[in-house]
Amino acid sequence: MAWQFSPNRPIYQQIVDEIEMRILNGTYEGGMRLPSVRDLALLAAVNPNTMQRALAELENMGLVATQRNSGRTVTTDAEAVSRARAEKASALIETFLLQMKTLGLERSEVLGLLAKEGPKEEEHGCNS
Amino acid sequence: MDAILEVRGLTKRYGATIALNNVSLTLPRGKIVGLLGPNGSGKTTMLKIVAGLLTPTSGVALADGKVVGPETKSVISFLPERTYLPDWMTVVDCLDYFEDFYTDFDRKRAVEMLNRLSVPADRKMRALSKGTREKVQLVLVMSRRAKLYLLDEPIGGVDPATRDYILDTIIGNYDSEATILISTHLIADVEKVLDEFVFLKEGIVTMHDTTDNVREAQGKSVDELFREVFRC
Q1: What is the pTM of this model?
Q2: Which residues contact B92 (CB under 8 A, 6 or more apart)?
Q3: Residue B171 and residue A46: Cβ atoms within 8 Å?
């Protein structure tokens, strides 16, 4: 199944987000060997150059490491992963707060709503 | 590395009609490039000149550093809009034919792809459906180890599933040294496999950029941009 991309952002960035998410939620475990650029490109139905660029970006972020002669693996650096997760979380929260503001809700009101929402259910919105 | 294709001041007239009007264009190696424009914008004329099938009225086209001519046919693999394989040939005959003509033809690769598509090898071309004939032609063209592939509307006449397969074939056979120039007006379907795109409008190149740049700078897809630029 080809991955879905939105029209308003570069595709390589969307691939970075997708693979980052898979690493952060554990779908891609630490030390796991990633498929080759070509196979990943076929999987996502994108240009291999685009996939290459996305993987280089993930390497810069410290989430993926290149092994000599054996392709790329997911980082085993748990600290790097939790740092990336924290960053991602605050970015998502910021977006969320902005949306709430647009909706006309003050920060304190949002917090109140969240507290009410909190213990009700454990929701998992990530796609595997 | 030098450019795989360089076109300078290319003009082609058909009588009073100007199909290409002073087009200059340079394409790097190792990229997938979309040649995008509405019907009648000069896409096919452009590809045919680069393929060495049409002589320009003026201007010059260089492929792999050489003026386009009989010599450059060995580095260019061209998929025309219509198949030219004689209908009395079987699929195997077509393989022989390509093997005789092109030293860079990889028969093993072609056979693998045809098997995967379940194309009956002993069948005559005339006994195959239009879509299947197009697949055979594409497989043959993509099985050459060329430096420049010119694909004229490779996804024009096929169903969406086959379209996906064709794009997969293009991605899967893509070699990082080669450049693929794909002409189409079905932009949404090919956009995600393109590194760069060229807009052709009434024989003039109106834009040449990377797809990432458009999304980054304008926050929209090439498809959306196309609809704005070419609004009727």
Answers
A1: 0.85
A2: B121, B122
A3: yes
